[in-house]
Amino acid sequence: MRLARTATAYEAAMWSSLFRWVLRRPPSYPPGTRTFSYLGAVKPILVTFIVLSAVEIPIFDLVVSRLVPWSPARWIVLGLGVYGLIWMLGLLAMLRLHPHELGDTGIRIRNGIGVDVTIPWTEIAAVHGRYRSLPSSRAVQVEQDGDGPVVNLGTGGQTSVDITLREPSSVHLPKGPSEPTTRVRLYADDRDAFVAAASEHLAALTR
Predict the structure, then answer these.
(1) What pTM value is reported for the model?
(2) What is the longest distance spanned by two Cα atoms in the chain?
(3) In 10 A of CB 183, how many CB atoms?
(4) For residue range 110-142, what is the model confidence (pLDDT) as tens digits?
């Protein structure tokens, strides 16, 4: 039941994002908020799939119309192909319209609607840039090392920003709170600008 609700919410968000993108209605943000994309890590793959899907639609339509005598099969295959193409366009739009946010309250880490984690500035000790490869391409990965758990909120199997927390804290992940950790990592396309903006907010706390 929970899986069905999650899938329904994801589908609704995908269609909503696609319409907003097509109609050029970007989301609004609180004053002073800066946004940072993470799409660059997966955009080449998504664009490749979108182009291949667009090319495959007329090819499959031709093959089915010639080889399958049942005429409704052509429309079923055509409908599935068009739906798949639109779905991937919607996924691209959803990732574009849900960027990371740096505002007055803290760092909001996003990955579509699947990941939405906010870390207040008062809990952050430092933010540094460092590219890392992850074991898989999953958006949420928790690993253990000698210093305890590390929460990786990556994109395309990589992270580029390290966040160090002042005290061990649980991170509210999609499947529930993590173990207390002092290390959270994420991916941002413009790593240096992200770190610079975060450092400005942290410096302002000490003035």
Answers:
(1) 0.88
(2) 76
(3) 18
(4) 999 899 999 999 999 999 999 999 999 999 999
